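Hi all, long-time lurker, first post. I run a small reading group and we've been trying to get comfortable going from sequence to structure in the token notation. Rather than ask abstract questions, I figured I'd post a concrete chain and ask someone more experienced to write out its structure so we can walk through it together at our next meeting. Sequence below, copied exactly:
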Amino acid sequence: MKDTFDQNAPRKAWMGLLAKAPEGRIAALLDATIARPGFTWLRAPEIGSTMVRARAGAVGAPFNLGEMTVTRCALTLETGEVGHAYIQGRRKADAEAAALVDALMQTGAADRLRKAVLEPLEAESAAAKAARAAKAAATKVDFFTMVRGED
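-- Answer (accepted) --
Happy to help. Here is the structure in token form:
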């Protein structure tokens, strides 16, 4: 049987969280937590686009839904850790902050960053998702059939 443990699962989770964070939020949380360390660019922030794929009903054949603008970058901390970031939209400063968080999560500051940056972002994301779900539930229409009594 194939081993299904993914050693990169935690990193995938925080990268996804950073990629979808609201504008300026990562930088604000990062700057409130830690002084930004020195780094060198492997790839300076650049704006491009990527194809978004989807499935009808989440089970059908995949199709190209359309393109989306993304900003990506990569950097190396002075201590050698490499951080990458892909951010939705045209936000170079957010991509830099996300790459710094990714790199710093590979250092001894990981627990501190998890509590000060990632957990608040996760809580805000969950709250926004719950608010969207509540708004959608308020518009739900229940269709029912009344028994006419002719039986």
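A couple of things your group might point at:
Strands lie at 39-55, 62-77, 82-88.
The helical segments are 9-19, 25-33, 92-104, 110-138.
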